[in-house]
Structure formats: C-alpha cells, structure tokens
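Researcher: Good morning. I'm working through a list of sequences from a screen, and I'd like to move beyond sequence-only analysis. For each chain I'm collecting a predicted structure so we can compare shapes side by side. This is the next one on the list. No need for commentary yet; just the structure.
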Amino acid sequence: MRETIPDDYPHQLNLEEVRNLASKYANNATRVSKAGNVSLGATYWHQMSELGQTEISLRNQLELNEILKKLKKKTRKVD
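Model: Good morning. Structure tokens for this chain:
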C-alpha cells in the first residue's frame, strides 16, 4: 500500500497527530534511504518530517507567546 500525506498536513491536524506523522515520516526517510528500490525517495519523507517539526515549533512558540502576554498583564496589575 502506498503511503500518502493527508491533505490537511500539518496545519489542520492536532499537535499529537503532527508529532506522530512527523515521526513516521522521519522513520520512512531512514527506511527508504536504505532500500534499493525506491518509489518515493528519502528526501521526500525528510521534507515531510521537517514540515511537521516546523509546525510543532510554530505552535509551541505561539503558545509561549500567549503565556508571556498573560504574565505581562498580571505583572502590570500588581504594579
């Protein structure tokens, strides 16, 4: 069975789905790079893995920014 990338990958998936797929794609890149008969090369799966990792980093950064905004508001109220 041929591996497919979800149409909504990675932006519309929840964080756990992105993590799982990025890990799966990284494993595919490793596995495919060892194979003699390759239909989708390691570069393709590596790129899909990187895309997922970038999405995870972006979401984490956005979450941290929201936390910092809330802390800033609390600090202003205390002063």
